[in-house]
Design goal:
This protein has 14 helices and four strands. It is mostly helical. The strands form two sheets. Strands 1-4 form a two-stranded antiparallel sheet. A two-stranded antiparallel sheet has the order 2-3. α2 crosses α10, α8 packs antiparallel against α9 and α8 crosses α13. The longest helix has about 35 residues.
């Protein structure tokens, strides 16, 4: 059934391309996400000893179709006139502020390393802990802390600074792309990528690759959409091919860094790429066949999707169980492990098949309206930033859910600071 699913996804992708003629339309990104995981499963199906069941095939297919229909209805019902790109602004940060920020950012990075290395001393023992030891155990330390306690690898105040820097990173990436594509001003735009470099270093220290790749995906999508506004869809498709050729080695390096972060002596590129991607759909199949129990908090409504909401309640003293975002790991017969079951698993676990279909339809409907507004209105304002911020999460749906699970105090603070930074650094020409 894996090969059938693979070609079905290609057909759905081609059909949406025929309608929207944009590879970065919401449904295309969602289909590409599952296509990537399905391709990985084709290569490792025998290694994992997995035979995809027809129930899993129809479950994935039905959710994608409901998302597609939701987007189609949303675009049809939302009436809007096509506008030309108008209202140019300029993104500018004073050089003195940039230098001050670099010193503060470097100091925060040093403190982050010190806190993580101190935790590594407790985990590994001994007195001589180097950078390699910290990086090699960052992921496992982070998972241990998240699963067993409400404490963190780094103090709350420093984590708050990192979240503020995240908001600045997204705005600065947007500002750099705005200056490069729309204002055609390449001078000093490179400086605006520095916050995202610092954020990537913070998250790498804490054992997270996903958020690093998220910054890259966000930047590429922002650039391509702005390129559409200025040069049209056809030229964007040609430009995207060049971007992929340049960015693919970077993404592969980041993916291969997973072995370093997990300190695997027998790490291989093949194992990390194909088994990690392919195991997502395979694990979903295991879950749908009741071969793995994932629901650790059946008494809580939305315990696997509204984790951030329950975390906020816990932080203000409400008596709720401590919830752990990563799902329980499962092992295949060849010894490979995964805790990624695609984003669909969380919906099914909390709300069943009907609930999953309703959620996917609503997501498609909302994205359909937002997509049409962005393409037709061509307004590169704060709404556009928020749209791309969530659009990039569709590309990770084949591995993990990042919509309902991200609703938290951190998200609210991020959006507030993103809006403040947007107002601070954008001005009329």
């Amino acid at each position: 059934m894996t090969i059938v699913l693979f070609f079905t996804l290609i057909l759905l992708l081609c059909f949406d391309l025929y309608i929207n003629k944009n590879i970065l339309a919401p449904f295309c990104l969602l289909a590409l996400s599952f296509l990537q995981r399905c391709l990985g499963l084709l290569f490792v199906e025998n290694d994992l000893e997995v035979n995809l069941h027809i129930e899993t095939y129809f479950f994935i297919l039905s959710t994608l179709i409901l998302f597609f229909l939701g987007g189609l209805i949303g675009r049809y019902l939302y009436k809007i006139q096509y506008n030309e790109l108008v209202g140019h602004k300029i993104f500018y940060i004073n050089k003195k502020i940039c230098w001050i920020y670099m010193f503060v950012g470097a100091g925060a990075l040093y403190l982050c390393y010190q806190y993580v290395s101190n935790f590594a001393l407790l985990v590994l023992g001994g007195t001589n802990i180097g950078v390699a030891d910290v990086m090699g155990n960052a992921r496992s330390m982070s998972m241990t802390v998240m699963s067993q306690t409400t404490e963190r690898l780094i103090p709350t105040w420093l984590l708050a600074l990192i979240h503020i820097n995240d908001g600045l990173s997204y705005i600065c990436i947007y500002g750099a792309m705005y200056n490069i594509v729309i204002n055609k001003n390449h001078k000093e735009s490179w400086m605006y990528f520095i916050p995202s470099v610092f954020s990537s270093c913070y998250y790498f220290l804490m054992g997270s690759r996903a958020l690093i790749i998220s910054f890259i995906t966000y930047g590429v999508i922002i650039y391509c959409y702005m390129f559409i506004f200025v040069h049209g869809l056809k030229k964007m498709q040609q430009k995207l091919i060049k971007i992929i050729m340049i960015m693919l080695p970077v993404l592969l390096i980041l993916a291969s860094a997973g072995g370093i972060m997990r300190s695997e002596k027998d790490y291989s590129f093949y194992k990390d790429m194909f088994i990690r991607d392919g195991s997502c759909i395979a694990a979903l199949d295991y879950y749908l066949q009741d071969k793995v129990d994932l629901n650790s908090n059946p008494a809580l409504i939305g315990a696997n999707t509204f984790i951030g909401v329950y975390g906020a309640m816990e932080s203000i003293g409400v008596n709720v169980p401590h919830l752990y975002l990563p799902a329980r790991p499962m092992w295949f017969s060849n010894g490979s492990m995964t805790n990624l079951y695609t984003g669909l698993m969380r919906y099914h676990l909390d709300y069943g098949i009907i609930g999953t279909l309703v959620i996917m339809f609503i997501l498609g409907f909302v994205f359909g309206i937002a997509y049409k507004y962005s393409i037709y209105k061509r307004k590169t304002g704060f709404f556009f930033i928020v749209y791309i911020y969530y659009l990039k999460n569709l590309f990770s749906m084949g591995a993990e859910e990042r919509f309902l699970t991200t609703i938290s105090l951190s998200l609210i603070f991020n959006m507030i600071f993103m809006f403040l930074f947007y107002k601070m650094f954008f001005r009329e020409e």
